[in-house]
Amino acid sequence: MRLCVKKGFLAVCGATVTSLLLVLLDLRRREGASGVSLESGRRGSAAGGQVGGGEPLRGADLSLPHKVELKDIFIAIKTTHKFHKARLELLMQTWITRAWRQTYIFTDGDDEELTIRTGHRVINTNCSSAHSHQALSCKMAAEFDLFVASRLRWFCHVDDDNYINVRALVELLSGFPPALDIYVGKPSLDRPIEAIEKLGNNKTKSVFFWFATGGAGFCINRGLALKMVPWASEGRFMRTSERIRLPDDCTIGYIVEAVLGVKLVRSPLFHSHLENLQLVSRAQIPSQVTLSYGTFENKRNIVELKGAFSFEEDPSRFKSIHCQLYPDTPWCPWSSVARG
Hints:
Elements: H1 7-30, H2 43-47, E1 73-78, H3 84-93, E2 103-107, H4 112-117, E3 122-124, H5 133-150, E4 154-159, E5 162-164, H6 166-174, E6 183-185, E7 193-198, E8 204-209, E9 218-221, H7 222-232, H8 236-244, H9 248-259, E10 265-266, E11 290-292, E12 294-296, E13 299-301, H10 318-325, H11 335-338
Parallel strand pairs: 1-2, 1-4, 2-3, 6-10
Antiparallel strand pairs: 4-9, 5-11, 6-9, 7-8, 12-13
């Protein structure tokens, strides 16, 4: 298993990528809302003390209006070169069409065709393609640095097997008061994870914290991200990851909870292939923020959504999900009927 690129080289590559994309990001911010402009729809649940059915938010006025638009969100997809066709093509056909100006793909190999199709929003991190904690953290470091440089209000990370429901994402983020530090997602464990933190003089200590699994996606607002910079920016994310010897999503949780003392807001609206996706009903799909596909307990794990596409035509069910949410999509079987 190849090691991730050295920290110094990562810092140079990250700085180069960041500088090349800063102009693009600035122009994109000035263009105004991209895709659809989405209204806040979850303020009622937030005012009741919870967000999307997750952990209560205490000590703040949760009725405070806070409209978030799609143009405020930086969406990062983590992938690897071998999945550009197998996984990214599906995302390009479905949810990315609704958020392409906000979406950046972080990978480990050059792909000229994909780069052109995405308007040069593909970042070759030069990280290893291995699934080691070093390689995963290498890519997350590049994501975080580019988000900080973008000056956008929200950082949302997903994997290449996630479907983002763009409307639900904007509605969820609109429910948070701007004064709070927000880290929202879904844990994959039913208890805090234990990490062994390396200290000086060959000493260690145990630390316990919650983290949102990257396989379901998570979001962090800008105020919190800026507080994370001393442990997460310009190559320091890799050093922090090495300190606890855990991968990228765990390192995010460590910085937020164990170092900064900010609690994860747990939301059931994020989903990964590590859970039983068959429990998500058709009626629930419009309110879910992310969905996924894969295997669970050695069985096919997908949202059991019947539609015009057979399971052979749409094994992930992402096309069927997309057509339920956006029936006017040209390739949806009933699009001509939906357009009236």
